[in-house]
Write a structure and sequence with these properties.
This protein is mainly beta. Helix content is 1%, strand content 45%.
Length: 601
């Protein structure tokens, strides 16, 4: 999964560690005090000190645990990595010469290890078949790429010029992370083959560098088991990111922070007492887990469990008894300054602001016990992608319902901008955005992004192939749809400039009526302005014969000269500088596309 960095400190449980935490320092502990579903393979993370004197870790069944203490890269904390797992269901006691957040009067922090379920929930991944419908795009230079087409149905002045980032992962065609320009033309596509799916594909910044990120893995009835992928702007793999503490990363969120960490989700099925909602005492429940992991090392800097902080009585999801119960269902994480996080809980129809230090709920917006008076039009059902903005407003995609009541009436999906007044504890509707032509209802997924211009950009979620950009006042200025009908968990409009992709441009050539048709593409290239065709009778001596402007992912160039024996193509930038040269091929046969790297071009 991940390799531990060099050990900064060795702690033998029961001995004194190197100085780093005095009795006056309050040190946060993760798993948070009171957690009842920690993983047996958990590390114990401390934030606020690089060491805790006289640290001991004891399991109520497994006894004293020795281990290693590894200082976090930002030198604001450390992780104690036990040398063996804890026992299922046991109580873990953490003691040290420091003020620990959530400690009992005796100074100790305790949390409990989960009791695993015996249900087999990860046998058959769900997903669509890998058919290739006729509407899918095809390329002579890259027959291995068959992405769905994207039809731009409206593009008015004032719409964003940024590219579209789509994690195609469900429908009739091939799946994969996809970048398209404002005209819908393909820039980059990486096929992802079933049983794997890509989610939450976007451009982000990692340690000051532009990167591409997405989640990739298997889906089991809406729960993901996989990992994050980070590519550089040449489409080379930089890092796979995994959940820590024995969990597997879920698909719902992969947010890279300026600190070089990632906020991610995980779902873990556990045994849990549901008698408080008239369910079984030995029920099976999905625990929604939020982690912040250091990308470079995999160390866990923060961990939060819904079952420890939010009562299952707040759910609006029915407990059916025969299936794992999902009372919370976290589907987005937003940073609320250094001390708080904003979580969207689909199955509580609410947003929760939580304290990063204690894990406690600061407030609930919507749902059964809202901390706010909800103004007209502000209530949500099955919502996704909640984001707080600099002006204090919150945007969210309101699905209008969810999968929990298949036969119940649902309302139209919409994007919401909400004004939150924490002083008066009230929420008011600033604006709602509905699909301009067809009333849509989406039971799952969806996103709402506010572009730099202030325009909302909405992806309409699972089963819906539409993306729409509005002005703040609600006028539609851009709309696109997949052909064939596909879906993306979220969609984004973001600027992107790729460096030189790995591999050469791909070329194919064929003779027709005595002339030569040359086809050229370079998956992911954004700096190509023109293509220069080289031709000749000797493959070692090729001369320029024609230049053509880049016109689409694959550019067709016709040579109105006697058919040469060999051709190649150069990629030129706007200043005429050569970027790369393709392989040399004979026009009598199609050129072969270069082998696609597993994580890149």
């Amino acid at each position: 999964m991940w390799a531990l960095p060099a050990i900064a400190l060795v702690v033998l449980a029961g001995s004194s560690a190197a100085p780093g935490a005095t009795s006056a320092t309050t040190v946060d502990v993760y798993p948070i005090a009171g957690t009842t579903t920690a993983n047996p393979r958990t590390q114990i993370s401390f934030r606020g000190a690089t060491a805790v004197n006289d640290l001991t870790v004891t399991g109520s069944r497994s006894g004293l645990h020795r281990g290693r203490a590894i200082v976090h890269p930002d030198r604001v904390g450390f992780s104690f990595v036990p040398d063996r797992p804890f026992d299922d269901g046991e109580l873990v006691t953490v003691r040290g010469a420091a003020k620990l957040t959530g400690a009992h009067p005796d100074g100790t922090v305790t949390f409990r290890i989960l009791t695993p379920t015996t249900k087999h929930l990860f046998r058959r991944p769900t997903g669509d078949s890998e058919t290739t419908p006729p509407e899918a795009q095809s390329f002579k230079t890259r027959p291995d790429l068959r992405p769905p087409d994207l039809k731009i149905t409206r593009s008015l002045p004032g719409a964003s010029n940024d590219d579209l980032f789509l994690g195609v992962k469900g429908g009739a065609g091939r799946d994969g992370p996809t970048i398209r320009d404002r005209l819908g033309r393909l820039i980059w596509f990486l096929p992802i083959h079933w049983p794997f799916s890509p989610y939450d594909f976007r451009a982000q910044t990692y340690r000051g560098r532009p990167v591409l990120t997405w989640w990739q893995g298997r889906i089991f009835t809406g729960k993901g088991r996989g990992y994050g992928v980070i590519l550089d702007n040449s489409y080379r793999l930089l890092k796979h990111v995994y959940a820590g503490n024995g969990y597997q990363m879920d698909q719902h969120e992969f947010e890279v922070t300026p600190q070089g960490t990632a906020l991610i989700t995980a779902y873990e099925p556990v045994k849990y007492d549901l008698s408080s909602i008239h369910g079984p005492r030995d029920g099976t429940v999905w625990d929604s887990i939020v982690q912040e992991v250091d990308v470079a090392t995999g160390l866990v800097l923060f961990e939060w469990h819904s079952l420890a902080s939010v009562s299952v009585r707040l759910t609006t999801f029915p407990e059916r008894g025969h299936a794992p119960f999902d009372p919370f269902h976290v589907n987005s994480i937003g940073v609320e300054g250094p001390d708080r996080l904003l979580l969207s809980a689909r199955n509580a129809d609410a947003l929760f602001e939580i304290d990063r230090h204690t894990g406690k709920v600061v407030w609930e917006l919507g749902g059964k016990q809202s901390s706010f008076t909800m103004g007209p039009g502000t209530d949500m059902r099955g919502q996704h992608h909640a984001v707080r903005h600099a002006d204090g407003t919150i945007t969210v995609f309101d699905n209008g319902g969810s999968t929990r009541f298949p036969n119940a009436p649902d309302r139209e999906s919409r994007g919401l901008t909400l004004r939150v007044d924490e002083g008066s504890r009230s929420v008011s509707l600033v604006h709602e955005y509905k699909h301009p032509r067809t009333p849509l209802f989406t039971r799952s997924q969806g996103s709402m992004q506010i572009l730099p211009s202030g325009d909302p950009f909405i992806s309409w979620g699972g089963g819906q192939p539409y993306m729409t950009e509005f002005t703040p006042g609600g006028r539609t200025v851009f709309e696109a749809t997949f052909r064939p009908s596909e879906e993306t968990y979220r969609a984004y409009r973001l600027p992107w400039k790729g460096a030189r992709p790995t591999g050469r441009p791909a070329v194919a050539a064929s003779t027709r009526n005595g002339h030569v048709e040359v086809y050229v593409s370079w998956n992911g290239a954004t700096d190509v302005a023109r293509w220069e065709v080289l031709a000749g009778a000797d493959r070692r001596v090729l001369l320029p014969v024609k230049t053509a402007s880049w016109s689409d992912f694959e550019t067709r160039i016709e040579l109105l000269v006697a058919a040469p024996s060999y051709v190649a193509v150069r990629a030129l930038d706007a200043n005429g500088h050569m970027l790369a040269t393709s392989a040399t091929v004979s026009p009598t046969t199609s050129g072969r596309a270069p082998r696609t790297p597993s994580a890149g071009a």
